[in-house]
Write a structure and sequence with these properties.
Structural class: alpha/beta
Strand content: 15-25%
Largest sheet: 6 strands, mixed
Shape: globular
Radius of gyration: 24 Å
Oligomer: single chain
């Protein structure tokens, strides 16, 4: 979707409630507030985190590269709820140029920084009280990490303060979120100009790399080309299972296993990501098209409020008609870019224009044929969703007009049995073989070998 800030302390929030019940000021037990109060007026002169300098104009796209040497570490983070503010404190091993700003629709705080090493375990869920609804953190692009905080209400941000190492702590970054009004929040919301340029340059650079990449030597080998798309990644964790298994980790492990299986059977295989990094939805589609894929398999894991719901399901692109559950899934998956803090303002809907392209009929038919074969094959090694396992939805990752594509939901991380089996290597091996069998069937022509 990792970003130094996230020991979001539910325990701290609960302790605040206890202190309030006892008639105490919760800030008396806050070491940051104590330090700021002890410093008195001197605290007003604490150094603000320096702004990221606006990059000098270059002849071509320029984006951040991975820094050399050890990465700064995010060692801890916590959130404190007070009567007049919500305070975020991030502890780092080294000072970094850190940038915080707000975006609207949906309301969120984006904290952007150079790439860091996240030395935090699975962070606890926020309490839901106060301004913060949820959050995520991780690598955004090579050389760039990010934390995104979803808001319950409009806020205004304080200047970012940096406390030097003391009392056994590293560098501490302090950001206060104050309650604000809707008009004031909307007026402040938006991307800093240099960061918007960086995002635009990154997309242009990715497009240039894809365009310059030599097409596969299809004429010599005759191999079919499969693009595997592990969903989510980086600061976008996707669904978190009842056993703590994160969707982004599960689908990457399954994709790597499937890649090895397909390569062993003679296919040419590319992945949209091979590490825990975020890839925008449009870039995933562009990768499949640039690689002239014969098939794209996007791998995910589902969740459902009903913990008894279980089994594998598969989605193909809808022509605009879909049931309520499929539409809900499409809404969740299509918001991956927003989850990562990507600015989609002004962009056209990537689905609608292609849905009316009649030239895509053959592509959708091929996708549906593969979906049917996959469910039949996987039904021999795992459970299939009992009710309507093949659905269609307007999923942004499936919109390439010339690449048959499916989105495969391995199972439900909200179901204990599904989550447990998906966390085993034996299950993943059987599933990789079953998907590969369906790929073989997709490209088998009577009298010809499967990969020809």
């Amino acid at each position: 979707m990792r970003v130094a800030f996230v020991l979001f302390a539910v325990a701290a929030v609960l302790s605040v409630a206890v202190l309030k019940a006892q008639g105490q000021d919760p800030r008396q037990d806050d070491p940051i507030s104590n330090l700021l109060r002890q410093q008195g007026d001197a605290a007003k002169n604490l150094p603000a985190a320096p702004s990221r300098p606006t990059p000098a104009p270059l002849p071509g796209p320029s984006v951040g590269s991975r820094p050399r040497g050890p990465l700064p570490m995010v060692m801890s983070a916590r959130i404190g709820e007070h009567d007049d503010r919500t305070r975020l404190v991030i502890e780092l091993s080294d000072p970094v140029n850190l940038r915080a700003f707000v975006l609207a629709n949906p309301d969120r705080v984006v904290i952007d920084m150079p790439e860091v090493s996240w030395r935090l375990g699975a962070p606890p869920r926020p309490s839901g009280f106060g301004s913060i609804k949820s959050y995520r953190y991780g690598q955004f692009r090579a050389g760039n990490s990010r934390m995104v905080i979803d808001l319950n209400r409009p806020v205004s941000l304080s200047d970012t303060l940096v406390l030097p190492p003391s009392n056994g702590f590293g560098y501490r970054v302090v950001i206060d979120l104050f309650p604000s009004t809707r008009p004031k929040f909307d007026a402040q919301a938006g991307w800093p100009a240099d960061l918007r340029k960086r995002e635009t340059d990154a997309e242009r650079l990715a497009a240039m790399i894809a365009a310059d990449r030599a097409p596969p030597a299809r004429g010599r080998s005759g191999r079919k080309i499969i693009v595997i798309d592990p969903g989510h990644g980086g600061l976008d964790a996707g669904t978190v299972g009842v056993n703590g298994l994160m969707e982004k980790d599960l689908v990457l492990a399954q994709s790597l296993k499937l890649s090895r299986e397909l390569k062993a059977r003679g296919y040419t295989v590319y992945l949209t990501r091979e590490t825990d990094t975020f890839v925008p939805l449009r870039q995933r589609v562009a990768i499949a098209r640039a690689d002239k894929a014969d098939l794209m398999i996007s791998i995910h894991a589902d969740s459902n409020p009903d913990p008894e719901t279980s089994g594998t399901s598969i989605y193909t692109l809808s022509d605009g008609r879909s049931d309520r559950e499929a539409a809900a899934l499409a809404k969740r998956e299509n918001q991956s870019d927003i989850i990562a803090g990507v600015d989609l303002g002004g962009d056209n809907n990537p689905v609608a224009p292609i849905l009316i392209d009649l030239a895509q009929r053959d592509t959708i038919n091929k996708s549906s044929r593969f979906a049917t074969a996959t469910l039949a094959s996987m039904g021999r090694v795992t459970d299939i969703l009992a009710r309507k396992p093949h659905r269609s939805a307007s999923l942004a990752v499936l919109v390439a007009p010339d690449v048959p594509a499916v989105l495969l939901e391995l199972g439900y991380l909200s179901n204990r049995a599904n989550a447990a089996q998906m966390n085993t290597d034996a299950w993943r091996t059987k599933v990789a073989g079953a998907i590969a069998d369906a790929v073989d069937q997709q490209f088998t022509v009577p009298g010809q070998a499967a990969k020809q």
